[in-house]
């Protein structure tokens, strides 16, 4: 509608009609408005003509501009004689107006003294509408803020769950992450993990049990009494008068791995999509951890098959142990061996080929076999053994490097001779628990340096003394100096009084304070003859499963 058309229509109306800007400038007025008040004409300032406070009139203008429907109000204007003329108004935004500034269209009716109640009622109605509008706006604002806060908190809990699952390597770590972070992510009372261990770890043997691995962190469904067919499904279960349990299936690659059992209290409903998203994250973490456990066990069995069976030597208590590192699922290059040289002398070996994998394991097997052959020929001289071993590695495996320590014990003289090729020093433990490192005769590792020179050192040992040979994985920790690891090992030796060789291996492998070993560990413990030990026959070999690493322990048959 144009301004001219508005004026033509307004001229026909009997009551005053105005078109005003938000600032109060009158854009158009019909003849009826001019008849009542001559000043009500185009170009006049309504705020100047009005008897009301300008702030109140501006408030009315703001209300009218925001409304698409007419809103009531009142207006008092002085005529040319100074008399007050009062009008009841209905104003609304002129949506048809296409000018630069928005405009208000006012339809006015002159009031007499009988209209006071009507005006007051209209003002009260307008005020109530304004109050209701403000309350509704505030309630909506609080609802939006609460929804934003809830969404932000949910995202934070989901991030914590995702981060915890991403850093979990084993099934026990995944279960711990679920117990600690999933209840907050799902707004639940508790979340339990129930798994099919034999689907996750195919390398489990029929007699194997994961009870020690699972503990109270998760339930092994394959160890439970069989229930109805069908496996884990999604749905609600009765859990008590105040608790509801919901089971969500854990599936990865179309394989059912178990379920999440989510318990929540009254009024703590779970969104199905949200629960499925969390279950999918947990399923992927469980699948990854199961693969890790499977490969870890296979690697250990392969490593065990490559390690030698220790010979039965009358009078000696021998035990050899191996444990894979917490960061490794591949077979390593650690080895140990015992070489009976003659009736009076035995040779002892421990070594470590750098790296992890099948290639390193194959090199380890060849180096170990080569050292056996060298020891048969010149095993009474440790330096000569390492010199020839260095030539062998340099010639047949020039790209490889290995550390090694070779010792020879003479039971007639009780002299222990040794040489080291870049290997940590053996620990000699006396019968009373005192200990010292055999830290002499250190030379470069075998392999990288052609013509490297190796030296002997010798020490007298007493009856009942024990020598502990080990690889560097036993003393290495992330961000820690090796001297700290050596000190920790020696401090632990003070508690080793009266222990057998097998018990020593268990002590040093699994009872160090805060033990977490990222690398493989191999140990060889040899207790030198005493009258009591000489009369005893060594115990048959066995395998034990221990935490945090599964330990392979061998003794002579």
TrEMBL record:
Key words of the record: Hydrolase
Residue ranges of domain PPM-type phosphatase in the record: 316-528
GO molecular function terms listed in the Swiss-Prot or TrEMBL record: phosphatase activity
One family name in Pfam for this protein: SpoIIE
Record flagged with keyword Manganese: no
Keyword set includes Hydrolase: yes
This protein's name: PPM-type phosphatase domain-containing protein
Organism: Kitasatospora sp. CMC57
């Amino acid at each position: 509608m144009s301004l001219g058309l508005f004026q033509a229509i307004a001229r026909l109306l009997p009551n005053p009609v105005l078109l005003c800007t938000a600032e109060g400038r009158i854009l158009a007025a019909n003849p009826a408005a001019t008849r009542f008040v001559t000043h009500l004409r185009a170009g006049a300032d309504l705020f100047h003509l009005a008897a009301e406070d300008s702030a109140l009139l501006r408030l009315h203008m703001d209300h009218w501009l925001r409304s698409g429907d007419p809103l009531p109000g009142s207006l008092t204007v002085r005529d040319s004689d100074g008399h007050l003329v009062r009008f009841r108004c209905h104003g609304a935004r002129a949506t048809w107006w296409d000018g630069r500034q928005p405009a208000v269209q006012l339809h006015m009716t002159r009031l007499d003294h009988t209209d006071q109640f009507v005006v007051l009622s209209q003002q009260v109605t307008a005020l109530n509408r304004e109050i209701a509008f403000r309350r509704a706006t505030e309630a909506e604002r609080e609802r939006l803020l609460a929804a934003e806060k809830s969404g932000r908190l949910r995202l934070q809990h989901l991030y914590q769950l995702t981060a915890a699952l991403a850093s979990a390597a084993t099934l026990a770590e995944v279960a711990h992450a679920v117990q600690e972070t999933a209840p907050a992510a799902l707004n639940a009372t508790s979340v339990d993990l129930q798994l099919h261990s034999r689907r996750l770890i195919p390398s489990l043997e029929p007699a194997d049990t994961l009870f020690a691995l699972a503990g109270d962190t998760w339930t092994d469904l394959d160890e439970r009494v069989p229930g109805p067919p069908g496996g884990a499904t999604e749905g609600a279960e009765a859990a008590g008068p105040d608790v509801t349990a919901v089971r969500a299936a854990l599936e990865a690659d179309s394989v059912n791995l178990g379920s999440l059992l989510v318990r929540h209290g009254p009024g703590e409903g779970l969104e199905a999509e949200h629960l499925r998203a969390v279950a999918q994250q947990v399923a992927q973490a469980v699948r990854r951890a199961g693969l890790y456990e499977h490969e870890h066990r296979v690697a250990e069995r392969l490593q065990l098959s490559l390690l030698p069976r220790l010979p039965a030597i009358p009078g000696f208590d021998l035990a050899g142990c191996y444990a894979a590192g917490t960061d490794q699922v591949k077979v390593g290059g650690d080895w140990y061996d015992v070489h009976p040289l003659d009736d009076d002398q035995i040779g002892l070996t421990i070594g470590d080929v750098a790296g992890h994998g099948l290639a390193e394991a194959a090199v380890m097997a060849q180096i170990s076999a080569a050292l056996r052959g060298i020891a048969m020929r010149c095993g009474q001289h440790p330096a000569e053994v390492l010199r020839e071993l260095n030539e062998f590695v340099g010639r047949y495996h020039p790209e490889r490097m290995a550390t090694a320590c070779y010792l020879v014990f003479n039971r007639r003289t009780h002299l222990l001779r040794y040489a080291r090729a870049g290997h940590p020093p053996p620990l000699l433990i006396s019968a009373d628990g005192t200990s010292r490192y055999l830290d002499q005769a250190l030379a470069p590792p075998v392999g990288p340096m052609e013509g490297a020179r190796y030296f002997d050192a010798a020490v007298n040992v007493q009856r009942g003394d024990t020598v502990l040979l080990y690889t560097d994985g036993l003393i290495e920790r992330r961000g820690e100096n090796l001297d700290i690891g050596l000190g920790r090992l020696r401090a632990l030796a003070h508690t080793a009084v009266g222990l057998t060789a097998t018990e020593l291996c268990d002590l040093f492998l699994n009872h160090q304070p805060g033990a977490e070993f990222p690398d493989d560990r191999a140990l060889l413990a040899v207790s030198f003859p005493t009258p009591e030990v000489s009369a005893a026959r060594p115990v048959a070999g066995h395998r034990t499963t221990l935490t945090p690493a599964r330990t392979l322990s061998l003794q002579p048959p």
